[in-house]
Amino acid sequence: xxxxxxxxxxxxxxxxxxxxxxxxxxxxxxxxxxxxxxxxxxxxxxxxxxxxxxxxxxxxxxxxxxxxxxxxxxxxxxxxxxxxxxxxxxxxxxxxxxxxxxxxxxxxxxxxxxxxxxxxxxxxxxxxxxxxxxxxxxxxxxxxxxxxxxxxxxxxxxxxxxxxxxxxxxxxxxxxxxxxxx
Length: 182
Prior knowledge:
The structure is a single chain. The protein is α/β, with parallel strands linked by helices. It is built from 6 helices and 7 strands. The strands form 2 sheets. A 5-stranded parallel sheet has the order 4-3-5-6-7. Strands 1-2 form a two-stranded antiparallel ribbon. This is AMP-dependent synthetase/ligase domain-containing protein.
């Protein structure tokens, strides 16, 4: 089988414009897809489904809540969560708020999580409810062994069947609900 790559010749002098040459960052991607495919499904998780329009609004709300919590430009936002809707949203929310995303591998032990929190100087720590015990140990190590202040802690509960598990007063869906979508 032979392929004809002549159609992909970069020297065809096609003038660059918004239709064929736009940098695709997480923010431009989310805006573009929410405008183009607003009613298409973006997330399916158990019995929960969101459209791209809903995802865009949820991300805007959470980014607004981060600003309300005094998470300012270039602050580190750490997340200890598996592949759940909140983790996808965090990949849009954190850049939207002008912050730095620090996604922590869920397979690490508490000592390594604490080391990552220390070195990243995370201002806020999002924790999936399944990893509360590991996070508690990591925070204890961070504060006692490393003499670091405790970051703000937000628990990500299960969207499909909430557990009510909390570590502190902040909960992910409450922050989404309270924020401004615009």
